[in-house]
Amino acid sequence: MTGFAERIGGAPISWGVCEAPGWGLELPADRVLAEMGGLGLRATELGPTGYLGRTPADVRVTLDRHGMTLIGGFLPVPMHVATAADLAGAADAMDTLAAAGAEVVVLAARSGDGSYDHKVHLGDDEWKTLFATLDTLQEMARDRGLRPSLHPHVGTAVESREAVLRVLDGSDVPICLDTGHLLIGGMQPAELLELAASRITHVHLKDVDLEVSATVQDGSRAYIDGVRAGLYTPLGAGDVDIPGIVRALENTGYTGWYVLEQDCALALVPADGEGPIGDARRSLEFLTEVAR
What we know:
This protein is α/β, with parallel strands linked by helices. It contains 11 helices and 10 strands.
């Protein structure tokens, strides 16, 4: 796997840093980036807007301080009901990403309230609005030199297998393959690879505990409660065939990033050297073995 190790990146969400309201305790950016760097990671996604700095210059200073580069950022937009204010906010976020040196903007079809704890069902008119908004967002991204990638995600309008298939049929948007969210939403990652390998331009690697996943899928447990109950495991410790997915991607000629992304939520500040860094270390060690 030529250049594989250089294409592995981190994400603040693996340290519990999330844009969703009421998610949990947020560790300081300097600690998170220092721990990423200590594991040998040299690139990261942005995290919530403002987390790494209020301005692009601030973001660059923060990254430079830790010897990190910026892969991109996650941008949830309520595409099915998008207002001018929503699009203006998305433009501001993309401006920040582009000015800070990002390559990718990872789009998600956000729910109305921004949480991930309920299903979002759209009517035909809302789907038309979503596709129109998605076209606009793609154009905005490319105008700024960013590569757009739509992320099927639990608690958004593009979560279920049916919704993913509708997006593949109704839009030409590139796709972010998230091994966890796809599985929880009801689509095997391998199926997306079979249907649309050429459209996969970004990858989030998660492993999943299927017993916990089933309770999120059937609605008996909210997504955030599933995360707190161990929905995501270190790579290799769950039920997802991570080696098979990585090898299949590489065989298709995929040359993009593999972002280690295990959503977690913190209630307390872990002691130095403890907490999320342990899971991230296990995941990175596993992925390194996969590449051999």
